[in-house]
Write a structure and sequence with these properties.
The protein is mostly helical and about 180 residues long. Helices cover about 65% and strands about 0% of the residues.
C-alpha cells in the first residue's frame, strides 16, 4: 500500500515534470543501508523527492530574493536614482525603473520555473551591467565605500555563477510551470 501511495504522489507531482534523478546527466550515487549492504532503493528511495524538494526550496529562495530586490527598485526609486546619477549612469531614473522590471521578470521566471533560460538571461544581463557600472570598487578611493562596493560586486558574481549553473538543469524543471 505504501508503494502505491508513493507512486501515485510521484505521478501527480511529476506528470509533466520528471524528477531530477531521472534526467540525463544526473548522478545518483548508490547508498548503503544500515546493514552496510547496498539496498535495492528501499532506504534511500526518496532521494529524488528530497532533491526535488531542495531544488524547489532553492528556487523559492532565489526567486523571492530577486523579486524583493526588484520591488525595492520601485520603493527606493528616488534614492537609487540619485545613486545611479552619482555613478554617471545616463537616464538614471529610467535605468533604475527598467532594471527593476528586469529583476522582477527574472525572479518570477525562476520562482515559477516558466522559461527559466530567459529569466536567467535577463538576470545575467542585469548583474553584469550593475556589477561593472555601479559596483566598480576598483575606481573608489574611500576605503569604507570601496569595501561596500566590493562586497556587492562579489555577491553579484556569486549570483551570476548560480544563474549560469541553472542553464545546465534539464527543462522542464520539476514542480514548475514548465517550458
Amino acid at each position: 500500500m505504501h508503494e502505491q501511495r508513493k507512486y501515485a504522489l510521484r505521478s501527480a507531482l511529476y506528470s509533466h515534470h520528471p524528477p531530477l534523478d531521472n534526467c540525463p546527466g544526473y548522478v545518483n550515487f548508490p547508498c548503503q543501508g544500515g546493514d552496510g549492504q547496498k539496498n535495492g532503493g528501499e532506504v534511500m528511495s526518496n532521494i529524488g523527492d528530497i532533491n526535488n524538494i531542495a531544488f524547489l526550496i532553492g528556487r523559492v529562495i532565489i526567486g523571492c530574493f530577486f523579486l524583493m530586490n526588484g520591488f525595492n527598485h520601485f520603493m527606493q526609486l528616488s534614492m537609487m536614482t540619485g545613486y545611479a546619477k552619482s555613478k554617471s549612469i545616463p537616464a538614471p531614473a529610467l535605468a533604475v525603473g527598467g532594471s527593476g522590471v528586469v529583476i522582477l521578470l527574472g525572479g518570477l521566471s525562476l520562482l515559477l520555473g516558466y522559461h527559466p533560460t530567459i529569466g536567467a538571461a535577463l538576470l545575467v544581463i542585469f548583474l553584469l551591467a550593475v556589477s561593472f557600472l555601479i559596483h566598480n570598487f576598483w575606481t573608489v578611493q574611500d576605503q569604507q565605500a570601496k569595501i561596500g562596493e566590493m562586497t556587492n560586486f562579489l555577491k553579484n558574481m556569486g549570483l551570476l555563477g548560480l544563474l549560469l549553473m541553472t542553464l545546465a538543469i534539464p527543462r522542464p524543471w520539476p514542480m514548475s510551470l514548465g517550458r
